[in-house]
Amino acid sequence: MEQAExxxxxxxxxxxxxxxxxxxxxxxxxxxxxxxxxxxxIVAEEEELVKKDGKPTGKVKLKNIYPxxxxxxxxxxDEAWYVVRNTPGVTGFVGSSxxxxxxFPVPEEEVAKVLKRIGMFEGKEDTDYKVxxxxxxxxxxLANQILPIIAVDVEKKLxxxxxxxxxxxxxxxxxxxxxxxx
Length: 182
Prior knowledge:
By secondary structure, this protein is of the alpha+beta class. The chain has helices spanning 18-31, 78-85, 108-117, and strands spanning 7-13, 38-42, 45-52, 55-64, 69-74, 90-93, 134-137, 146-153, 158-165, 168-175, 179-181. The chain has 2 domains: 7-117, NusG, N-terminal domain (Alpha-Beta Plaits), CATH 3.30.70; 134-181, SH3 type barrels (Roll). It is 18% helix and 39% strand. The strands form 3 sheets. Strands 10-9-8-7-11 form a 5-stranded antiparallel β-sheet. It has a 4-stranded antiparallel β-sheet with strand order 2-5-1-6, with helices on one face. The longest helix has 14 residues, at 18-31. The chain is elongated, with a radius of gyration of 20 Å. The mean pLDDT is 86.
C-alpha cells in the first residue's frame, strides 16, 4: 500500500472563533493520539497597526486574514478526518460536499502563498528573482506595492527594491517571505 503524504486542508468555522476552534482541535489531537496524522493547525493572522482617530497608536494587533477558516496540515485518514470534523466549532471542510465525502486538499502553491504572507513558509524558496523583475510586497509597510528589484541577496534571502518616500528615491531591503512574483 502506498504511503499517504501530508497535505493541506481548509476547515470552516464560525467567524471570530478561529483561535478557539484551533485550540480545541489541538487538544483533540493530543487526546485522540493523532499526532502522526495531524501536524499543523493554523489561523492565518498578520500584524496590523492599531489606529485611533486615523493616527497610529504604536500598538499592534493580530488580524485574521481569512475569517471563518483554519488551515490544517494532515494525512487524511478516517480517524484524523473524524477528529477534525467532530471538533466543536468546525462546520465542515472546504472541498467536501458533505454526506461523508472526504475533502480535496488545497494545492501546495496556494497554501505557500498564505504561509508566506504570515511568515511561516518553510518550503523551497523562490530564488530566481532577478534585478529588473517587478514584485508585489505582501507584508510590512510597503504591502500591496509593486516595485522593481535593484539587487538580490540569495544568502540573506533579501531583495532590494526602489521606492519613493517623501518625494525621494530610496532603496529598501525586503525579505523573500514578504514578496511574491507578479
